[in-house]
């Protein structure tokens, strides 16, 4: 059987279409074995530190166009937990996987304990929501760069002190919410930051090669106010920023006024 390749971009759901939050418990060792046997592994000492590429490849091979996107991986005491937004409930995804997935791919997830809930289909102008999002704040010039490092270089060139990382990333996130007037961020906190080395695949003809890429990994919490309900619904389904297919950009909602992660 030919190996299924990760799928491309997916259109956001049509207005009023139900969206489901999916929770899939994953076995980290089984996920690593699947990625290795499918050829999604580095050969020059690079590692997929956040399992982003492995999860991306597994979702594509197991669920195809039904795969949750955006998604986020979280470590738990029992292993990995994948949260994501999908157009079908967990039961439908489990049936699809049991019918079509290869045995090694099926074994990555405990489908019996997979869960889901239907998200609201309508939002309201002025509605306040708490949020948490893991995002990758990078520039989109000739080559991708950490936005904070861009700020440092620009400040040095102009002889001024650079803004701090929280301010640079917070301004970027505020712009993401403001695109097409989806929402207005009223509070943004950089709750965590690290630089993570992720695995990516490049193609040269028919040759598929893997390489490691280091990127900023920022965890934000805060509160927002909905400006345009339809645009906000599209933003929620699409996700925030770049590399959404690899575990970045899923906007998790919580009641306003609730802090912490």
TrEMBL record:
Pfam families tied to this protein: CRISPR_assoc
Name of this protein: Type I-E CRISPR-associated protein Cas6/Cse3/CasE
Domain of life: Bacteria
SUPFAM superfamilies in alphabetical order: CRISPR-associated protein
């Amino acid at each position: 059987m030919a190996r299924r390749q990760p799928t491309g971009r997916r259109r956001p759901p049509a207005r009023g279409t139900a969206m489901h939050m999916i929770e899939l418990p994953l076995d980290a060792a089984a996920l690593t074995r699947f990625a290795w046997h499918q050829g999604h592994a580095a050969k020059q000492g690079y590692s997929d530190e956040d399992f982003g590429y492995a999860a991306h490849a597994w979702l594509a091979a197991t669920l195809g166009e039904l795969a949750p996107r955006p998604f986020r991986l979280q470590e738990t005491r029992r292993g990995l937990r994948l949260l994501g937004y999908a157009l079908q409930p967990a039961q439908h995804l489990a049936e699809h996987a049991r019918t079509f997935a290869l045995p090694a791919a099926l074994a990555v997830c405990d489908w019996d304990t997979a869960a889901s809930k239907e998200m609201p289909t309508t939002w309201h102008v002025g509605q306040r929501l708490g949020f948490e999002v893991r995002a990758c704040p990078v520039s989109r010039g000739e080559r991708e760069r950490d936005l904070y490092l861009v700020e440092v270089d620009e400040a040095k060139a102009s002889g001024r002190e650079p803004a701090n990382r929280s301010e640079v990333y917070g301004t970027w996130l505020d712009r993401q919410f403001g695109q097409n007037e989806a929402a207005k961020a009223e509070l943004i906190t950089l709750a965590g930051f690290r630089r993570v080395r992720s695995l990516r695949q490049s193609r040269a003809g028919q040759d598929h090669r893997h390489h490691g890429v280091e990127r900023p990994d920022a965890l934000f919490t805060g509160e927002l106010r909905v400006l345009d309900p339809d645009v906000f619904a599209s933003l929620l389904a699409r996700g925030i920023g770049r590399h959404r297919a690899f575990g970045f950009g899923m906007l998790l909602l919580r009641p306003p006024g609730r802090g912490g992660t």
